[in-house]
Amino acid sequence: MSAAPTGAPGARVIVLGGTSEIALAIVRELQRRAPREVALVGRDPEGLTAAAEELRTAGCSRVLTLQLDALETDRHEEILGRAFDELGGGDVVVLAVGVLGERGGLPTDAAAATDVLRVNVVGAGSMLIGAARRLRDGGGGSLVVLSSVAAERPRRANAVYGASKSALDALAQSLGDDLRDDGVRVLVVRPGFVRTRMTQGLDPAPLSTDPDTVARVAADGIDSGARIVWAPPALRWLMLVVRMLPGPIFRRLRQ
Ligand SMILES: NC(=O)c1ccc[n+]([C@@H]2O[C@H](COP(=O)([O-])OP(=O)(O)OC[C@H]3O[C@@H](n4cnc5c(N)ncnc54)[C@H](OP(=O)(O)O)[C@@H]3O)[C@@H](O)[C@H]2O)c1
Hints:
The protein has helices at residues 21-33, 45-57, 73-87, 110-137, 159-179, 211-224, 235-244, 247-250, and strands at residues 11-16, 36-42, 62-67, 92-95, 141-146, 184-191, 228-231. It contains 8 helices and 7 strands, in the order βαβαβαβαβαβαβαα.
C-alpha cells in the first residue's frame, strides 16, 4: 500500500522528543505547508505543554501531549499506541530524542557516557522500531529520524555521541529499506552543527545552521521521498570529502 500523501490536509504528526527545538521547527514547517494535528511525546510535562502552546499558535488545530522517557522502554509500545490511537492514526513520525553528552575521545565519566548510549541507541532505537511497526500496520507513512553528520565516520572528537548516532542511522536505513514496499518511507536527516540548546556554549562548526533550515530540508525530504538528507545541503559534499580523507590525515582532525 502506498504511503499517506504528506502535505495532505489533516495529516497527523507524532513527535518523539516533543520538546526538541529541531523537531518543533519541522512541525511548524509542515504546518506552514498544510494543516496538521500533532501528538508530542516526551519526558518533561511542562516543556511539552509549552511546546504544544507554541504549535497551536503556529496554527496546528489539535496538539496532544504524552509523557514518556526514552529509557522506559517497557512503556514505549503502550505510549506509542496511545499517540497513534488518540490522533486516529499517524502519517508522519519525527524521532528527535537525543543527548550530546561529553565531547572528546575517552570519556571521563563512564556512567554518563553509558547513559548517552542508552538514550541515543537503546531508547531512540526502541522508539524507531515501535514507530515503524505502527506506521506499517497503519498502511504507511513517513518516519523522520534525526541522525547527525557525526554518524558518518568515527571521530576522536565525538567518540560516544558519534557511535550512538551511527547505530541509530544504520538501524533507520535498514528499516527504511525493509519497509519501503509496505509504504513506510524512512528519512534519515543528518544535520551538522545546529544552534539549539543542545549546542549552547559550543564553538560553531563549519556550515553551522539553525532549526528552521533543518526543518525545510526535512520537509522537502518528506515530500520528495528521499532516504537521506543533509542540513544544510552543502554538508553532503563536505562529508563526502571527509569520508574519503586518508586515515592518517583524518585522525589528526581535532573537531
Ligand atoms: N543541535 C545539533 O547541533 C544537532 C546536530 C545533529 C543532530 N542533532 C540531533 O537532533 C535531535 C534534536 O536535537 P535538538 O538540537 O533539537 O536538541 P534538543 O532541543 O535538546 O532536543 C533533544 C530532545 O531529546 C529529548 N530527550 C533527551 N533525553 C531524553 C529521554 N531520556 N527521554 C525522552 N526524551 C529525551 C529532549 O527532551 P527534554 O526536553 O526532556 O530534555 C528533547 O526533546 C537530537 O537527536 C540530536 O542528536 C542535533
